[in-house]
Amino acid sequence: MREYISLLLIVIVLSGCGTTMVINPQTPKYNGATDFKIKGKVVYKGNREYLPKTIKDDLNSVSAVVLRYEYDVTYGRDDVHQAVPLFNPLTVVGFPIGEDTLATCGRLEILKGEKILKSYAACCAFQKTRGLFYEGETFSELRKKGLLEVRNNIEMQMYQDKDFLMKLE
Amino acid sequence: MKTKWLKLSVFFVFLCIALLLNGCATLGPIYQKVDTIQEGKALVYIYRPSSFVGGGISYNVKVGETVITTLYSGGYYPYLAEPGETEFWAKTESKSAVTLDIKPGQTYYIKGTVGVGFFLGRPHLMVVSSDVGAREIAECKLIPEAKIEKK
Question: For chain A, what are the domain ranges?
Answer without folding.
Answer: 20-166
